[in-house]
Amino acid sequence: MTIINDISLLLQYIFFGFVQGFTEPIPISSSGHLVIVQDLFGLKLENLSFEILVNFASLIAVLIIYRHDIMRLTLNGAKFLFKNDTNGKSEFTFILYLIIATIPAGVIGLLYEDVIASTFNSAHMVGITLIITGFFLFLIRNLKGQKKENDLSLKDAIIVGLAQSVALIPGISRSGATIVAAMLLGIKQKTALRFSFLLYIPVSLGTFILSMDQLLDESVRYLWIPYLFAFITAGIATYFSLRWFMNIMARGQLIYFAIYCFAIGLFAFIIL
Fold first, then answer.
1. 190 and 252 in contact (C-beta within 8 Å)?
2. Longest CA pairwise span in the chain (Å)
3. What is residue 122's three-state secondary structure?
4. What's the pLDDT tens digit per position in 201-215?
């Protein structure tokens, strides 16, 4: 009986890892889907330590995919900062904008994350926020934008950063909110996508570091094997999901995500 229970628990966490990992990069809200899945199947995660761990797995996948951009920004930005090489000024400015855009979500998350989680942590509320996400994805479905990486402004960084802070609400997609804000500001799809996921790196890394105490807590130590399998599953799922999403963005087919958010949002709002 114990073996059966252990296998059941392992499969449950692998499933949660896949759901979080696959939905993290695409604009349909990973946190919202975890709420819906738990409610729909009568499952329950122990605490926030799971989300923190699988988000870190997603971070590793993002780092792998954007490794060339990260290397370019780091090397050229450092040349401008330490050697006054003007060829790296645009990369240094881009990094500065990423730092500035990180601040709103970091501050609001530290002050109000528990309040936000407790207020919106129901399938009914997630249904509403997913419908809102779908509306804004529908709004930008045909936007192309002209601004490239070198054309970004401080105002753009602040607005995208504020949009990311709104995504602390389950059901409001982080990638969706930042991409919507960027494209409404006239930023090209490819640049909006890159800025969104490079912006994910400091936020996810900061959350992981600040929440290490939860991962080391006695109450979750017996879950290290399910957590490990969930971690691996989430990382792999995020990698392939993000690659797929990049192709969808390149083809300008965000309308499909808008339709999905409307459908799953209505389902959660009416049925669950």
1. no
2. 67
3. coil
4. 998 998 888 777 776
